[in-house]
Amino acid sequence: MLVAGCDVGSLTAKAVILSDGKILSQAVRRANSRPEESAKEIMDLALADAGLAFSDLAYVIGTGYGRRQISFVNEVVSEIVCHGKAAQWLNPSVRMVIDVGGQDAKAILVDENGSVVRYVYNDKCASGTGRFLEIMAEALEVPLGELGEQATISQNPVSISNQCTVFAETEVVSLLNNGKAIPDIASGLMRAMAHRIAALAKSIGLEPEIAMSGGVAKNQGMFSALEEVLGLKIMRLEGDPQINGALGAALLAEEAMRKTVS
To answer: Which residues are paired to 121 by β-bridges?
Structure first.
């Protein structure tokens, strides 16, 4: 049985194809301003990688920021549900998922089946999101993929006092002009962002079995800073944490198909 999940976020589009409970194909690419177009492009990539046609898929679920603009899916599901489902499927002991996306951050409590028990999210401010890191990387003139690595070699992290992204960017430029080292500024940024995400997670009650999903989970500096601020180890999920939403959507598509044949 072939099913798929398509996750169109604010910054990236992801797709996962499952074959009888195993990941057959996955794809990630930058999203454009038209969610439906981004969805088609990413599904085409995943299908081509698997050597399949769209007609081979029995069921497709869409999720993410642009899910309601995806025309080819059988149904749409909240990314909160999808991230919880995928994280618990990858590691059955997971009870809390912290997902940091391009434009929002979420903390999700799940049960032993990966079903959402409670959640909270922040989409009102960019300061705790992937977009915050993008803006700061640009201000530091460091590739986004290297920002986390820079933070891990810091010898003397600076304190970032501004929570607003606009003011924090101004503060970063000022710190650079005052001769502060890029690794120390990067580490300060990671810690400041970690405090905001930790406050979000604590607001619904921390569970020790925590996993992190989303593209920001690949940032080692951010991962380490969040562990430090929470005072807890964070589980590393198998594979690419950036595809978690699409994976959860595909798992739900598989469940939907099982119900139709049972």
So the answer is: 106
DSSP assignment of 128-190: GSHHHHHHHHHHHT--HHHHHHHHHT-SSPPP----SHHHHHHHHHHHHHTT--HHHHHHHHH
Decide if pLDDT at 168 tops 90.
Answer: no
Of 204, 200, 170, nearest to 185 by C-alpha is 170
pTM, to two decimals? 0.92
CATH 3.30.70.260 fits 92-236, yes or no: no
**CATH H-level, domain 1-78+243-262: superfamily:** ATPase, nucleotide binding domain (3.30.420.40)
- Type of residue numbered 233: K
Strand order in the sheet with 59-63: 22-30, 12-19, 2-8, 59-63, 75-76
| Rounded Cα gap, residues 171 and 159, in angstroms | 10
H/E run at residue 28: strand 22-30
Percent of the chain with pLDDT over 90: 80
Q: How many CB atoms lie within 10 A of CB 181?
A: 17
Q: Where in the chain is the domain with CATH 3.30.420.40?
A: 1-78+243-262, 92-236
Cα 194 to Cα 12, 157, 235: the distances in Å are: 22, 14, 16
